[in-house]
## 1
Amino acid sequence: MDMKMKGNITLGIIKPYAVEKGYCGPVLSRITEEGFRISAMKFIRLSKAQAAAFYAVHKDQPFFDPLVHVMNSGPSLILLLEKPDAVRSFRQLIGKTNPQEAAPGTLRRLYGESTVLNGFHGSDSDENALLESHFFFSLLERF
Ligand code: CMP
């Protein structure tokens, strides 16, 4: 692959807070309206160990324990999304980490509650998109 080429996949998560609130339907509609193809999708309730492994890069942050707690609090909807320049495009759609700082119309601004309960995750690089896609989905689950 040309090193300058942007990848076309990203890993998105509708976190337990947003699933519990019933936001999956409108959010999936919005994601597809924005031109993403959903190439794999499943509900999973992460154990604390799985949530800690997924967010291992944040293990020394003060918000790590609350983050693991909320990710373990109920099912998340995990999405493998395809679109040109997917990582940047999806991060733009979800908006800044803190919903109050996220631009109007972004998913976190519309549906997020706080920085920990911000409703959505999106990979932050092409490299992490690949790692995260393999964390959640086997080849058999991708279409
Ligand atoms: P996410 O994109 O899933 O990646 C890491 C998560 O940690 C982030 O969304 C937030 O939910 C949470 N997070 C990041 N920074 C902070 C912070 N300063 N305070 C509380 N939670 C945070």
## 2
Amino acid sequence: MTTHTRLLGVMGHPIAHSKSPQMHNAALTHQQLPYTYLAFDVCPERLPQAVAGMHALGARGWNVTIPHKVSIMPLLDEIAEEARVIGAVNTVVCEDGVLLGLNTDGAGYLQSLQEETGLDVRKQRILIIGAGGAARGVAYALANAGAEHIVIANRTRENAEQLRDTLSPLTEVKAVHLEDMRRWLSDRTLIVNTTSVGMAPETDVSPMPEEWLPEGVVVSDLIYNPAKTKLLREAEKRGCVIHNGLGMFVHQGA
Ligand code: NAP
């Protein structure tokens, strides 16, 4: 590092589990770029100060993760089209002093899903569990790629309904409470967990009971730590094709 080294990073709370610093610093070293990437644990009430601090220190940009992807939006100068439609930001770039919010989650997820499973999204009847920041990016990308039908099941039904309203111009979408998802499982071809249920350190929980999982479908989990969540372990036992969040993580970061 020299006086020319510029700052990049990721803001979240908690953040200790993140592998972003390893991935980005490895890429920066490989490409011999004059940046360093750090992890910042920013509690929600300190987000405005953290954003102002990064700006004042001349950071080139940073990633944004749980729980700041939505709450950071009013703190930025401009929001790119996809991030505006999704309603969440996962990347901030500082361009000529202007803070621009982007969302690369959906495109990263789609690339990973297609590369690893070969699925044709246009033929899929999809259950998305969760309606948070990551769900918005993934659901938008799937709907925009022509998914046949999408059901969004979420603990807080109003959040699923909000997401449904965003997607309904793109495809047929239904919003249900998490407890009602069972009745929508029989004709699904792709199940995507976008909640944090099953993420380290609480790895012994799953967003649905094993016996609810349809046999032989594709089950995808955005979590990459652990590499095989309880949901994916149980799906594998039931003969499903499984897909984890590592590829999405790599592609959204790249
Ligand atoms: P978020 O905006 O906080 O949303 C969390 C979602 O999970 C909400 O739908 C929330 O429901 C639901 N949820 C949380 N705890 C729950 C529980 N105990 N039971 C049922 N539902 C629960 O978080 P996010 O940014 O979308 O991230 C979600 C997950 O995706 C995390 O595990 C994160 O690591 C992963 N992710 C992976 C990548 C990748 O590159 N692979 C990228 C982004 C995120 P409510 O609406 O009811 O609160």
